[in-house]
Amino acid sequence: MFSRRDFLKAASVSTGFLLVNPFCSAFDNKSIDRINFLFDASDIPELKRRLQLPMFESFWNEMQNADLKEDRRFLETGVEYNNQIRHIARVDKILEREAFVYLMTGDETRGEMAKLAVQTILKFKKWDYFVEAGKDVLGIQRASLTAKTIVLTYGWIKDLLSDSQKEDIFTQLGEKGCEPCYRSLYGMLHQDQVVGWGFDPESSFYEERDMRNWPKILSRTNLRSVPISALGIGALFLKGRDSRYNRWMDIVEKSYNAFVDLFEPDGSYPEGTGYCRYTSDELILFLEVLQRQTRKDWSKAVNWQGVMDFFLMTRMPSSNHPEGHVNFGDGGHGFSSNIGFWIAKKYNDGLSQYAAIHHQQNHKILSVIWYDPKIEEKRPQKKWFYRHFDIGWVVASAGFDAEDFVVALRSGPPANHENADRNSLILKCYSENLLVDHWHPPYSHLHKAWALRTSPAHNCVLIDGKGHQYHDGMEGTNASLAEAKVVKEQVTDDYAIVSSDATQAYQLVNDNVKNVTRTFLTIPELKFVIVIDSLRTKKSPAKFAARWYIDNEDNKGEIKITGKQFEFKRPLANLVGICASGHEVELSKSNFPVPKVHGVFPYLDITAKKFASNINFITAMAAIKNQEIKPVIKIEEQKDNWLINAKIKGRNIEVSVSTKAIIPELSIKMS
Questions:
Q1: Under 8 Å between Cβ of 543 and 607
Q2: Rounded to whole angstroms, what are the CA distances from 630 to 301, 577, 609, 649, 650?
Q3: Which pTM was predicted?
Q4: Predicted local confidence at residue 35, as pLDDT
Q5: I need a surface site. Which of 395, 411, 456, 647 has the fewest CB within 10 A?
Q6: Do residues 498 and 519 touch, judged by C-beta distance below 8 A?
Q7: For position 1, what pLDDT does the model report?
């Protein structure tokens, strides 16, 4: 292991610059005043016009009507200067808002608030709470955020700043912003030279955590995109003022090229939509600044129109989460409109314009800046949509609004921020999550509800009472070793049939497992789903169960069991179903064992009464509005075959299922 001195020496030798290097002794103080990184002075009248559009009315009202009295109190007496995780982030938010309002309105009070926020930031000894070798600050999140905020707002309030304040900004941006971001990117690129990352003992946010592998882990997560963006923007801002510019931009380019393949060719992103939003926000901002300042276009490395397709086709809004998307893992939040507007403008893309106008989670300042009213929005027109994303997820969606039916299967490889959820299936209809993945379980393995990340807390199968492989959380929310893979799919105008094999994930903890698969049929127009769970063991018989969760985040979820039939009840919709098996099964309900203060999580277990080496469960279910006439669903066992008959909204469905092989064969008739 390198010493701290070795690490610093290696960094400086490899780049040809010293790590700690003061600014160039001479620079043109006026050159930076002419730089506006996002728009020109001539664009301001158009931005003011956009702010009057109905689309931005709520956003702009919130910006203008901020609680200035409380913000001033916080800036003057409430800031803890070692609380980077919360307080510097809040100051950054105040600065961005107040600087933009001042630019748009000329209100001197707002300008003075922005100036006060800058002065407050400059009082922080450190801009982040991560350190290398116990001492040298790393720019991961807060130093990155602060650096970007300083750069992007400088041009909006520069007329309020004295020359000495400007020079202080330039100096601190390099030392507290850019250089810490450089250290983190260097460590991700040269992991063998890292002494050891950790939380800063001087910060208010400190806990013991095993971070030996964090340079490797973070190199394949959204948190690499953050210092890439911040260092790139900060370096371009300080170009001609700091001799470290070439070293900074060199590592930005290398880091960018090593990172962007995390986006799959179709634009899907393995950490889910919430973290895809975070990553996209960061990269798009940097790409825009880079092209404006240097005319270099690095955007082709990512299928950005595919990213917007990923956002739109995973839309899953519900009564509890109107911003919701398919939430496998930690991230089911939506996207901000600035992403869609940037993509729409860059590629003249009507789908991105449609998504950003109608299905965004929120608007931002960048939304106003990048919105181009000349782009004609284009809504996708199909009876329903099917996606098998390159990350392995499968989504069948009847639309993008809360009323629409959506079913999704979590197949695919490991990913950061994941849960132990291979072959988990979730379903939403009529504004209700009827088969639910719990929303954002705790990060920390010390939390009493951390077990919500494990297989028994998901809509998965259990073998001898256990789920598939997962880690112990000591290193954070990093990826496990568990995989699942879609092995068969059939898609027609009326239905989709998908089979996913999770054998590898279960074999990691149970060497008696031979095969574990889940096959589902969905007819989105009728809100109908059939699930076939199959287990084969190598030697001894096993106990097999399938577990299903109802949304109870608001304590309004209920499970009702009648023999082999069940009903998941929510205020606006119900899921009614029936199950069968060649082995006698019993249905039971319980709550996942975490303290009630962290929530009550009711589930249905479908369990084979006897141990067996070859087991198949068939579960057929349909979503209906509350008080709507229930569909009639029957399952009949035939020789080497199962026959499922359903009558839903006047339509007759007949499905024949052969379970001779581990991957079932289905035949469908509809009338």
A1: yes
A2: 50, 10, 28, 9, 11
A3: 0.94
A4: 54
A5: 647
A6: yes
A7: 32
